[in-house]
Amino acid sequence: MVPGHPARPQRHRDRLRRSDCRSCPSRASCTSSARGTRMLTLRPRELHERTTTARAEQDTKSWRTRYALRAGIEGTVNQALDTTGIRQARCHGLPKVTLQHTFSAPALNIVRLDAWWTTDPLRKPRTSRLERLSHQFAS
Fold first, then answer.
1. How large is the average pLDDT for residues 25-50?
2. What pTM, to 2 d.p., does this model score?
3. Burial of 25 from C-beta contacts in 10 A (0-12 / 13-18 / 19+)
4. How far apart are CA 16 and CA 43, in angstroms?
């Protein structure tokens, strides 16, 4: 255990007996293990109740509204990382890195305005680098 870190809650693992699983009519859809039995992992009651409460909250409209805001912000951050490369500083020293970020923000705004005026940015599919590379070899 690392000092200063909270202990992980212990989980209870239970393997069902082969005799219990053999007689079950749903065995083929229940497990795909080579042994033919199912293993259950049970969380402590407190952790299970918190997880259940959090999952139930995710079905509410207010949670989805809050999460939509977060998704938009994360999309903006991801676009900044992809477009301007701000994850890796080009220079050393805080003043130069600050200058890079100061120029990256308006550059990102210009890129987004250009995409808004010339295309439909909400429906533009994102392609991975591997996919773009495969298109180059196919041409």
1. 78
2. 0.42
3. exposed
4. 17
